[in-house]
Amino acid sequence: MSDWRNRIFCEDALVGMARIPDASVDLILTDPPYNLGKDYGNDSDKLAADDYLRWTQTWIDAALPKLKPNGSLYIFLTWRYAPEIFVMLKQRMTMANEIIWDRRVPSMGGSTRRYSSVHDTIGFFVNAKDYYFDLDAIRIAYDAATKKARSRSIFVGAKWLEVGYNPKDVWSVSRLHREHAEREDHPTQKPLEIIDRMIKASCPPGGMVFDPFMGSGTTAVSAQRCGREFVGFELNPAYCEMIHQRLQIATPEPSAVLIE
Ligand SMILES: C[S@@+](CC[C@H](N)C(=O)[O-])C[C@H]1O[C@@H](n2cnc3c(N)ncnc32)[C@H](O)[C@@H]1O
């Protein structure tokens, strides 16, 4: 169990999780298949609803013991299964937030018999009251217009104006398009901007981030560039190679070793 750090294992997370010692991970940050029928080169997103929820309960049961007592978890979901999966997690952890990721979908066409869905639902869960959370690392700078509007003497030197504001629970960040430099050939790649915020807030520098479902490797790339360690799994060998390439580009030193 000694060589699991900073590695992506190209295998089923449910098989591979035994590699990770219990209570060794600061943050589980994951974006599992949503069961919407996407093609990941496997059937993981095409299960019957009951099978999907049973599988979800199984991986949650296997993953949560890996967290440290003051660890946290972020999980990307959609409205379709978030209610059931949040209930599963609330049996074992405390829910700190529901974060809405507004994907900034342009207003063109859309659903005609219901409202167009333009957000993902993210659950933020914590293990204990003393969970790690570095607010200063993720404050958002006020824009120039706001700073100017607060230029009266009573505001000069105001700490809140200088340090920026606390992020809210609606995050408006464009989904990745072909023209974005970070875009890879993966159907549900998440923006680094979002993952960076979660890691900086909820994993201490040098700490360990675990993502059982790496996809194109966004969690690993973000952990590496934020100075954290990572470990994860991905079923599709082509995505494993993609992650390897991304990590090579992100740092001159080879940092991830793939299992054949
Ligand atoms: C929603 S995607 C993750 C996308 C990722 N967050 C990104 O930014 O690229 C889910 C991934 O989980 C992988 N997957 C599905 N079942 C798996 C399993 N049992 N073990 C490991 N990976 C799995 C799929 O192949 C898919 O690439």
Q: Can you walk through the features of this model?
A:
28% of the residues lie in helices and 19% in strands. By secondary structure, the protein is of the alpha/beta class. It folds into two domains: 7-106 and 115-132 and 168-250, Rossmann fold; 134-166, no CATH class. An eight-stranded mixed β-sheet has the order 1-8-7-2-3-5-4-6, sandwiched between helices. Helix 6 (192-202) crosses helix 7 and helix 7 (218-225) runs parallel beside helix 8 (237-250). Mean pLDDT is 93; it is low at 252-260. The protein binds S-adenosylmethionine.
**Molecular shape:** globular
What is the subunit arrangement here? single chain
How can the largest sheet be summarized?
Answer: 8 strands, mixed
Distance separating the two termini: 18 Å
List the helices and strands and how they pair.
Blueprint: E1 7-9, H1 13-16, E2 25-30, H2 49-63, E3 67-77, H3 82-90, E4 94-102, E5 119-126, H4 144-149, H5 159-163, E6 170-172, H6 192-202, E7 208-211, H7 218-225, E8 229-233, H8 237-250
Parallel strand pairs: 1-8, 2-3, 2-7, 4-6, 7-8
Antiparallel strand pairs: 3-5, 4-5
Helix pairs in contact: 2-3, 6-7, 7-8
The structure holds S-adenosylmethionine.
S-adenosylmethionine binds next to helix 1.
Keyphrases for this structure?
eight-stranded mixed β-sheet; 2 domains; 260 residues; binds S-adenosylmethionine; alpha/beta; 8 strands; 8 helices; 19% strand
Can you give me a brief rundown of this structure?
This protein is α/β, with parallel strands linked by helices and 260 residues long. The protein is built from eight helices and eight strands, in the order βαβαβαββααβαβαβα.
